[in-house]
Structures are given as structure tokens and as C-alpha cells.
Amino acid sequence: MNAMTRWTLKWEHGEATVQSLGAMLGPVRFELGGGRSISPLHVAPWGDDARWHGLMRALRGEWPCVPFGTVHPPSDLPKGFDLLNCPDNWDHGYGSNHLWQLVDQTSHILRLRIDYPANGEIESLERVIEANPDAPILDVSLTVRVRRDVMLPLAHHPTFAVPPEGVQILGCPHEAIHSYPAAVEPGVSKILPDRTVTSLTALPTATGSLDVTQLPLPVATEEILQIAGCQPPFVLRYAASGADVLLDWNAEELPDALLWISNGGRTHAPWCGKNLALGVEPANSFFDLGRVVVPPASHPLADRSGLRFLVGKPRTLHYRLSAQTI
Length: 326
Known about the structure:
Order of helices and strands: EEEEEEHEEEEEEEEEEEEEEEEEEEEE
CATH architecture: Distorted Sandwich
Number of helices: 1
Number of domains: 1
Number of strands: 27
Helix content: under 10%
Structural class: mainly beta
């Protein structure tokens, strides 16, 4: 991979860095007033390590996933799930794993672009990060252009810090919560697969219920949940910093929020049991499996097949990341 570049926006209410790899946004610092600030986005503990391939080299913050999802299906899916052949080897899409180009930078705006390989259905992605001059707010847009009409699973991938002093998931009003159809990390994950519940405070495990609303958890694990019908904003409370962090998006396009709870459960390199993070991923997808799995028609998330993109009609999605005092 060629040399990576980073660009930074600095304004009265914060500072935000974007890197060329994956157009990943992070770290971000929001100024809260009175000399207080918060840096809510996660930076993987290995930092920038060129030994690792693609997005793993410098995993951090938030980035767009087009198409969204893993290219490796779980080996222990229940009966009734069909497998798909994924046409490439890029987890979360080509754009997550390659270098973007800076198109334009002003005092409050960064505009980046990446062109996809010529043999694929996606032509290009353009991403705009705009700092609100009057508040600790970042407005982000993603414009997708395609070469042929296509339905794609899609998600934003905000990954939030889990500091030692903790973070509370206040979440969002929702319809239901679905557990991953297989063990996220075999032999490690605690939440029973393929279950539907109503609350993050009572998730089923082999030894009783698990409350995941206060992180970090007391036990090492890796979990993925899909909050169906999530009505944003999704709220995280960093009580020690006196701040709520809000993630807002268009729920008509991305109706759910995937939660990735990384609580030191992956012991192999580069994770090494040290990664503590919370992904809150606005999505239109069947978990992160839309590229490799077709769920049975009876599954309550069977209709989460993605967004439709049309040739000659660029489609732009928007979301907002902000902080406020509590």
C-alpha cells in the first residue's frame, strides 16, 4: 500500500482527523466549554501498523462500508441459511481497504473520493466531512455512483471509544433486538445466537441474562446485535466526561443499528485481547452477512437486503455526529 495521508479540520468547537485509508474519520475531539472536551471515536490499540492488510492497518473511528459486510460467512449457521459467493475479498468493500484522494479542503470541509475497480458495479464514492462552525457537530455525507443498477447492503461504521471509566448505552427507541445467527467469536461470545429480545439489559446467555448497556463488560467477549427499527439519534453517555454523544441519520434509508461490542474477546494478533470498542453502525443489511448469506424468508430481518442504486442517479446519504453536555 502507498503512503497514507491524514488531514485535520480545526474549528472553535473541535478537531477532526481523516485518513486516506478507508477515509476513516478519527480521532475526533469535541470541545464542550469550560475547558472540557471529549474524544468519542475509537482508535485501535495497534495504531498504524503496516504489517496488517487493508482496513486493519490503521482501524479507527468511522468510515463508509460499500458494500457492507464480511466476505467470510460463519461456519455454524442454523439450517435454512443459504450461502452466496462474494465476488471480492474486501471486508466492508473496496473503499474500506484502499486509499482515498483529497478533492478539496476548506476551513470547515474535507471532501474525499475513491474510484472503484473498472469491472465492478460501483463507480465511485465521495465523502464530505463538514464541521459546524457554531457547535461541536460534524455533518457527513456519502455519495454513491454506480455503473449498473444494483442493490447493495450498506452501512456507516462509527466505532466509539470504551474508556476505563466506562460508557453507557442509552440507545434509541426500537422495535426489537436480534442476536447474531451464529457465534461471533466461537468459544468466546456469550449471547445465545439467533434470538429476539426487547432490551439490551436482558440478553440471553447460557448462564442467565447479560446487560450490555454499561461498557466495558466484566467478561471478555465479542458480540454483534442488530437493533431493528432504531429511531435515531442513538445516544451514548460518557458520564465521567459529562457528555452525551449523539449519532443521527435517515432511518428511512438505514432502518437499523448494528452493535459491535468488542470487549477484549479476540486474543489473536493484532487484537491481542486489548481491543475495547463499541460499533454503532446505521445499516440496511442482514447483520454484516448480506454479501455472503441469504436468511430464511421467515427470519424477521429477511427483508434487510440493502439500498437500490441506479445508473446515472448518484445517491447521497447523510449522518451527523455531535456532543452535548449533561
